[in-house]
């Protein structure tokens, strides 16, 4: 029979915290928590379907500029060239 998994209690959390500090170092912990918070916010946005961009902004960003200022990248030479070629 498999015993039920229980969440850590009291002193177990302290041991887990000490292990995390030893693994990542005290300087990295704020960065790790910030990244975890950002990831949770992005997940909530995606789950609820909240988009930062409206459909008009998406289609406007997808269209190239009409003033002839578009530039092409020369993959063989590595430089940029104007559209006049």
From TrEMBL:
Give the location in the cell.
Cell membrane
Which Pfam families does the record associate with it? TatA_B_E
Q: What is its main location?
A: membrane
Give the transmembrane ranges: 13-30
Could you tell me the keywords of this UniProt record? Cell membrane, Membrane, Protein transport, Translocation, Transmembrane, Transmembrane helix, Transport
Q: How does it sit in the membrane?
A: Single-pass membrane protein
> Which stretches does the entry tag as region Disordered?
43-85
Keyword Chaperone listed:
no
Q: Where is the composition biased (Gly residues)?
A: 76-85
NCBIfam families given for it? Answer: tatAE (TIGR01411)
Q: How the protein assembles, per its UniProt entry?
A: The Tat system comprises two distinct complexes: a TatABC complex, containing multiple copies of TatA, TatB and TatC subunits, and a separate TatA complex, containing only TatA subunits. Substrates initially bind to the TatABC complex, which probably triggers association of the separate TatA complex to form the active translocon.
Q: What does this protein do?
A: Part of the twin-arginine translocation (Tat) system that transports large folded proteins containing a characteristic twin-arginine motif in their signal peptide across membranes. TatA could form the protein-conducting channel of the Tat system.
Which family, according to UniProt? Belongs to the TatA/E family.
Tell me the protein's name.
Sec-independent protein translocase protein TatA
- From which source organism is this entry? Kribbella pratensis
The primary gene name is tatA
